[in-house]
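Hi L., both proteins are below.
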Amino acid sequence: MSARVYGNWRRPRSAGMWGFGTLPLGILMGGSALAAFVSQQRGLLVGAAVMAMVLIVVLPMRFLDRYGRNLWQRVAWRVAWHLGRARGQDLYHSGPLARIGHGTHSLPGLASGIEALEAFDGLHRPFALLWHRAVNHVSVVIEVASDGAALLDDHEVDLRVAAWGDWLAGLGYQAGLVGASVTVEAAPDPGARLRREVESHVVPDSPPFAREVMTEIVQSYPQGSASITTRIALTWSMLGRGTRRTRSIEELAVDIGHRLPDLTATLAGTGAGPGRPMTVAELAAAIRVAYEPGAHEWVEAGGADEAAVVWAECGPRCQEEHSGWLSHDGSWSITWEMGKEPRGMVLSSVLAPLLRPHPKLARKRVTILYRLHDPATAAQVVERDYRDAVFTKSNSRGLHAGQRLAADQAERAAQEEAQGAGLTRFALVATATVTDRCDLDEAAAIVEDLGLGARMALRRAWGSQAGMFAAGLPLGIVVPAHLRIPEHIRELA
């Protein structure tokens, strides 16, 4: 039996003609009508000038780079970057002598407005409820113990992949859920947790030989081993669906607390293992280590004293953003975003090269961001995509392979949605962190090669390293909610 393959993903694009999307096509047609009217009123020269201005605005939207971004978008990020640097937004200092943060080491940038609260779920387990005040979102983070696909036959792998797909599709029925993310972080294992576990079980009258063996294991085992953690963040809107009333944080804490037992229990069939909601102290410790990798061994050795890392102190002491990399607390990081999705049909192990630990990287974090559509919206989206693909193909000269493939993919997506499949938008953010500035170029080459091994093109997040670094953390940040231009306007370009 041949291995099962996966694919049929496509980027959502608005309908248009001559290579223009809906927005530039509307501007072009409206500008043409305005130029004709001006020509009649003020003469051909004035009308030609108006048409020239319209073309100056529209034509840059026609030319896309290999990542699907037009000229105006590339110019906009450069202007925004230089304006931000002129205002000093590339520098962040916290602590007692800083002018912000009330003397604490709070989180910077996109994460600066997040407040962490403690609540209890239906099984009376404490969990961290992250309140994104700026966008009226709340998030919870679930830690899982994934055992990977080692020693599993293809049939079992297929079952787990199908269960994960069903779990994601089920999120579309969660009222008010606006986003989800899966963060896989790999780093060298300092061995502090193993040492603490062994020392806690040593008894005074144990044989000397047994103590020597366990001591040798504690000293030698961490060498070359890796610590891999997997966390799932779920984000709800405080508005919910079909209502304009903003729910209180207390209401959401109770509502989400009732949902968590089922959400964590159903993860077991996906291969993620038993899920457990993270507490505020655990999450604060994880974020602290992401910004300061040197604190990893100290946090691991703390064990039950992890509560010493409070939420207000989990941010960096100093952070400096450069166009292509980020400096934070004695470490340097580069963050990439998925420029192009894996081409064609792929195996379920396509991301394995990118997720594996690498000995040259102090920390490597890969986050897959999901935005779920509820069943009603999913039906509308796939129907609209199919109509747009057919419209684009019918209004083009000749039959281009790309247009025919897009129409076939849209039709297949509509059929799968009608059979009960969920519709999900996804993106990927990858971050590599090193503890020596001289290792940055080597880290960049390593991760980009790993991206090629995963059959995807990784695009360095030029000019937005700090923001994308925060988006890759297990904080439940929904990036489009923080953009100034509404998403429905951006999709028309």
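That was the first. Here is the second:
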Amino acid sequence: MSGSLYLAWHYIRSHRTTTAILVASITLIAYLPAALDVIVDSAATHFRSRAESTPLVVGARSSPLELVLASAYFDKPHEEVLRMEQLQRIEKQELGQAIPVHTRFKARDRLIVGTTSDYAQLRNLRIAEGRMWEMLGECVVGSRVADELGLGVGSKVPVSSKTAFALADAPLRLNVVGRLAETETPDDHAIFVALRTTWIIEGLGHGHVKDAAHGSPAAVEYTDITKENVGSFHFHGDRAELPLTAVIVVPASQKAETLLMGQYLSPEETVQIVRPVDVMDTLLAKVFMIRSYIIAITTVVSFVTLLTMSLVIVLSIRLRRAEIATMSKMGCSRFAIASILGSQILILLVLSSVSAAVLTLITDAYGAELVRFLVF
């Protein structure tokens, strides 16, 4: 058998192009279903871990999935709003910790997240450089935002919003005071500010020259908030009516969670409460169902491809009749000839299996990074 393998190996080496095509084809047939499994499993783990760290989310009645994606994954600005009174409603009952989130605006195409220091504690966010925000107009940037936009402590980031101070040509500029340590979560891709700063961006508060009458030439609104002018910033209207996009709730106990969930079941209720993990499980169930269809289709295609390759191998053997006849005249038995041809096929399968296994291991090792790159 060793002699058959030796001859088969040298035959394959002398036909490198044909061998490479066959090995690549068989490798892809084995690798694609395995890679799909690995990537989907990595995506499921990634999405579920974020959802599990976000116990409950309260938001305006709309798509639960859009609410969760906007408040936990920061995929895009969320236009549906609720009022501060909903946050106060939860706080008064003392059933858990309520963390406000406001995600309606962007700065240099990165989402601005208005919240409180409680959010940083919930996500265990750490400062890698600088400090946390302390006053209006200050922001802390995620690690990927800092790297991609070249931001550091002291940088200025103009808000990408026409509503800032109601002046399209003079938007508010955020002052970067800190950079977050990398977390490999959506927090790396966001800009964090105090909740009140988002209300300034929305035009619900402003600052201008002290004692200047509204509408007078002296009442020019500031576009940079500094220690010198921050005292002039103020808000109009009832605080309970100020907007949020969501409230993340960390229930004090299982009983508190049940009580909170029951309060939003009424059809007349304009606000909804969702468990992000349940929402993501529903989404992932559909993804897994689609994956099973894709694997079934891939299996059929792979089977057809293998049949075609078998036909190619059979035809190639028929084309090698003269070569086989020469081997027979040299004294090779039918078994020896069959062993050489079988060894060639065996070597192709081994090379393909090893290649597919290596590619699958690489995909498994870097699957999480690939998912984060594709999603965020």
